[in-house]
Amino acid sequence: MDLFELNAELRSDMGKGASRRLRREADKVPAILYGGEQEPQPLTLDHNEVLQHIEHEAFYSHILTIVVDGKKQKAILKDVQRHPFKPKVTHMDFQRVSDKAVIHMQVPVHFINEESCKGVKAGGMIQHQMNTVEVVCAAKDLPEFIEVDVADLDVNEVIHLTDLKLAKGVQLADLLQGDDHDHAVVTVTRRGAADAGAEESEGDEE
Q1: What CA–CA distance (Å, rounded) separates 139 from 53?
Q2: Per DSSP, what are the bridge partners of residue 31?
Q3: How many CB atoms are located within 10 Å of the residue 165 CB?
Q4: Are 159 and 153 spatial neighbours (Cβ–Cβ below 8 Å)?
Q5: Nearest 5°: phi and psi at 142?
Q6: Is the pLDDT of residue 1 over 50?
Q7: Where in the chain is the domain with CATH 2.170.120.20?
Q8: Are 61 and 53 in contact (CB under 8 A)?
Q9: What's the whole-model pTM score?
Q10: What is the full DSSP assignment across 129-188?
Q11: DSSP structure string for 44-70
């Protein structure tokens, strides 16, 4: 079985009223599967199954398997709508992909060796500038996350997008726009400077 597999049924009853009934009476999630050479397919998903999957970070940056009438289709999650205050998913959008299809996808950044970071040992504080990055790659090459090792990062040093280690075939969308999009990913600042910056931000909000 694939890591993330969703069982879906084709939905014939359309419209906002029908979607509300699905959510209320059948505890189902209305969804749409589109893309590729096929027509868009309106679907219904089991809400409990959806809740189990969306708790995993990897669900949002993974090639998913959606089973419709016994047929498996590969897709990525493009949008998920939630109830404003209840733990309920109200709608989901999926895009079909093939292994060779080039996709743009936000993937999480995982920082490692923060406790042993050189700058932290010198009294500095790690500041994450980015927690996700947009990658461009073939669907088969989609990374679950990008790992950033901060062990050797010293005070006032910065790791930029160009410093990230990427698997073959994976590119960063920002860098494809030019060198001026080489944004900072993580830095180590002196604690006094970091605290002052935080206080200044709080003052601006007042």
Answers
A1: 20
A2: 43, 92
A3: 9
A4: yes
A5: -60, 120
A6: no
A7: 102-205
A8: no
A9: 0.78
A10: S-SEEEEEEEGGG--S-EEEE-TTPPTT-EEEGGG----TT-EETTGGG-GGG--EEEEE
A11: EEEHHHHHHHHTSGGGGGS-EEEEETT
pLDDT digits (tens, 9 = 90+) for 20-78: 655 555 588 999 999 988 899 999 999 999 999 999 999 999 999 999 988 999 999 99
Least-confidence region, from 2-11, 112-121, 136-145: 2-11
CATH homologous superfamily of 5-96: Ribosomal Protein L25; Chain P (2.40.240.10)
Q: How far is CA 4 from CA 54, 64, 163, in A?
A: 10, 5, 31
Query: Which superfamily is assigned to 102-205 in CATH?
Result: Ribosomal protein L25, C-terminal domain (2.170.120.20)
Dihedral sign of CA atoms 88, 93, 98, 99 in order: negative
Q: Is 197 helix (H, G, I), strand (E, B) or coil?
A: helix
Q: Nearest to residue 164, comparing CAs of 180, 181, 147? A: 147
- Let me know if 176 is exposed, middle or buried by CB neighbors in 10 A (0-12, 13-18, 19+): exposed
What DSSP character marks residue 14?
Answer: -
